[in-house]
Every structure is written in structure tokens, then in C-alpha cells.
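An instance follows:
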Amino acid sequence: MNEDLKSISSFPQSKEELFYISPRFKYPLTPDQILKLLENRYEPTVIVDEESGQVVAYANLYDYKDDVCCLGNVIVSKDFRGKGAANYYLLKTMIMKAKSIYKVKHLLLSCHSTNSRGLAFYHKQGLNPLICE
């Protein structure tokens, strides 16, 4: 797990990108920051490339109540962006976990209004994120 956290910590390429993942994080991201945030999160999920064994994506769930929860801390390694890691594996895995483990009927996600790459990605997937200022 420590190696996964080190890998995930290297994903954000700037303060702005880290802010999009979580406004609570301070740049540069550290494994300890991730662990602290996980105290109130569910199903922290790491996607690993089968060929290289490299950690390529990460997300978790939070604010679970009744039949609703939120998808959070979505991030993909810069080496795997635009290659389907988030779409084909991460989002589908998180949706499956939310539905099968927590019986969620509504999975919410938010995206900052200045995160054009994130907004474009979510809309391409047919998702309508809550826009944060």
C-alpha cells in the first residue's frame, strides 16, 4: 500500500491540478495526506496496468448516505491520461462498487469550473458533474 500511495502522490503535476483532486491537499502531495483524507472515505481504489504493474489511476467514494454517495479524488497518472484508464477501468469500477456494495442509486461527482479537461472528460462519459467555483 505504501508504494501505491507514493505512486499516487506523484500524479498531480501542479498546485492547480492537486486542487482539482482535493482542495484539502497541499502541494506537493504526500502519502500521509492521502491517508488522512481516507479516514472519511470508502473504497479507495487503485487501478494497475497489467503489463507494467504500474499504478495508473485512483479514486474513492465519500458522503455515503441512504442511496447516494459521491465519487472523489479521481486522478490518473500523466503517463496514462487519454489512454482509457479512467474511462474503461476507474469509472466503471467505482460505479460498480457504489451500486453493488452500497446499493447506491445516485453517484454524485463535482468538478471545478476551471478544470476544462475534467469537465470535458465527464461530459464525454455522459456524466453531469456538479460545477464548483
In short: The first helix runs from residue 2 to 9. The two ends are 33 Å apart (CA to CA). The mean pLDDT is 94.
